[in-house]
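Standup notes
- DV: blocked on the single-chain target, sequence here:
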Amino acid sequence: GQVAWRSDTGKAIALVGPAQTVVQPAVTIQVFEHLIDNGYIKPDTLQAYAWKGGARTCIVAETGTAAEIIDGRGRPQQILQRVYDYDSFDGSASKRFGDASYVLICKNGMMGWRKGNEVRIRHTASLTERHKDAVQALRVQLDGFQAEAVKLQQLADTKLNDNGFRAILQEWFPLNEDGVRSGRSQNQAELVERIYHEGAGADAGTLWGAWQAHTNYVTHHRGRESSRTEQNLIGAGANSNNAVLADLYARAELAASM
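- DV (later): unblocked, structure below
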């Protein structure tokens, strides 16, 4: 195997297999510099994250692309597209490039909403190839963004009464065999219901409002703050968003067919 090491301290991070090329975080930065130089992303929006002492890193940036949803109350809700480049140097995850867009009014992140469009990028010794792969991955995100926004508008156009939302909430926070929730689960359910009615950008009465409540909870409340960002990008938060959105889309399609 080979030793993955930190360029700033020279300390080893982990042992990687002989088939894996050791790539330092500086290479990820160079890839983003390439995207900036070619006008693909906005340099003043760059955010960088590191976990496990630099063994896992991520850069997030806006592309300058936006979409607008008209919610159930007739208010415009702007969605700003962000993309992320996540990499691990301890063998725990593959390098990936995906969408991390958010709703401007409430800063609710929609990570996982386009999980099917996430691109895995191979580790390669060629920086030129990494530039090429990153640009191709970015184009995948750009090409599908507006089409996905049209589907989000369908959520805003689909009515949802309070009983319907409580039924959805019960799926998110199921009752146990005795017909009740644990104290922690009940507190979470009550928080999400409050967000649905009162949170920033709340749109109670539509499936969009249900989606807003879920993304607000995942973005600002779910899990530990120290790990929330990473989990929302590639972990449980993203998976939860993806599953919830698929269900809400199905509900909107069913309502439209009736």
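- Follow-up: Strands lie at 2-5, 12-16, 47-51, 56-70, 76-88, 95-99, 102-103, 108-109, 119-121.
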